[in-house]
Design brief:
By secondary structure, the protein is mainly alpha-helical. The protein is 82% helix and 0% strand.
Length: 331
């Protein structure tokens, strides 16, 4: 991707999310957004924090497993702290991936291989998204939802596409010194060792399912918090649709497509577009509050860097003076 296209895409992502939010405000007003914040209770925040602890530990365990397979392992406690930090950054900065990039670079620097650190994060996130998409498609196939009539075709197309990609990847030459061949060899090795290894894939699968269930449960809690009386069987597919929208990279810290799809899905299900926007807003705010431990991790990082810099400044004059004093002694 050229520099101009990269710059255009960088700006298009947050602007797309902002445009969706602007359309929702134009059509529905600010009331649903304000309700999504006003109706949040202490109990709903405690539930969000508890669910986020579980999903963060599972995500960190998944990351640790993939990273170990790629030869850049890390301790679980370190992974949990870094994951909280990345979630907080993803929730507060445009694009929704800054925290993951930061997490990969920091771990790569600590492990002495930035490339492997970034690849470990990339494959860990990709595996999580694949499991979530499969779970969402199954949910939309089995449960009543506004998109159920077309889900058979969607599932068939997705399976055919996945098989096509697998066939193409196997058919493309992977030998030789070309950059494409090297990338393919490295990708196959990463998937084999980091994701599909017999010690890795059960952890990746189970943790990804738990994380998906946690996010879906949090969305349903947000719906009930903002006044919905719909049963879980009706809310769950709506939650899957809204969370699938977050995969679309046109958002501001997760905001935008999620609220737009929630408004459409809730309206199509007879629950009202305003209820969908209020639910998605509450979900976003509750999720942000639940990731606040990441802000503490960032503050701790800053304090440690400041102390290290001050310690280096205190020792610098002595280290500079040392050669001179030694030369005077020899003189």
């Amino acid at each position: 991707m050229s520099g101009g296209r990269r710059l255009t895409w960088t700006w298009a992502r947050p602007l797309g999310g902002a445009a969706i939010l602007a359309v929702l405000v134009w059509r529905l007003g600010t009331g649903p957004f304000l309700d999504g914040v006003r109706l949040i209770s202490v109990w709903s925040l405690l539930a969000a924090a508890s669910i986020t602890v579980l999903t963060t530990v599972c995500s960190a365990w998944r990351w640790q497993t993939v990273a170990r397979g790629l030869g850049v392992g890390l301790r679980l406690g370190t992974a949990v702290a870094a994951y909280y930090r990345s979630q907080f950054l993803n929730s507060t900065l445009p694009g929704g991936v800054v925290g993951d990039v930061h997490r990969g670079v920091r771990h790569g620097l600590d492990a002495g291989d930035v490339g492997r650190g970034l690849r470990a994060v990339g494959w860990e996130r990709a595996a999580s998204q694949v499991v979530f998409v499969v779970l969402a498609v199954l949910s939309l196939l089995l449960l009543d939802s506004p998109v159920r009539p077309v889900m058979g075709w969607v599932a068939a197309t997705a399976v055919a596409g996945a098989l096509g990609v697998a066939v193409v990847l196997r058919a493309v030459p992977q030998l030789g010194p070309s950059r494409r061949a090297r990338v393919l060899r490295a990708s196959r090795a990463d998937i084999r060792d980091g994701v599909l290894d017999r010690r890795a894939w059960p952890v990746v699968l189970v943790t990804s399912v738990v994380v998906a269930l946690g996010h879906g449960s949090l969305f349903m809690i947000a719906a009930w918090t903002t006044g919905s009386n719909a049963p879980p069987s009706q809310l769950w597919p709506l939650a899957m649709l809204a969370l699938l929208a977050m995969v679309v990279p046109l958002h501001v810290g997760g905001w935008g497509p999620r609220e737009g799809v929630a408004a459409w899905a809730f309206a199509a299900a007879g629950l009202g577009a305003a209820q969908g926007v209020a639910t998605a807003t509450a979900y976003g705010v509750m999720g942000l509050v639940a990731t606040m431990p990441g802000a503490l991790v960032l503050a701790g990082d800053r304090i440690r860097r400041t102390r290290a810099r001050r310690a280096a400044e205190r020792h610098e004059p002595a280290s500079v003076a040392s050669p001179a004093s030694r030369s005077r002694e020899h003189g």
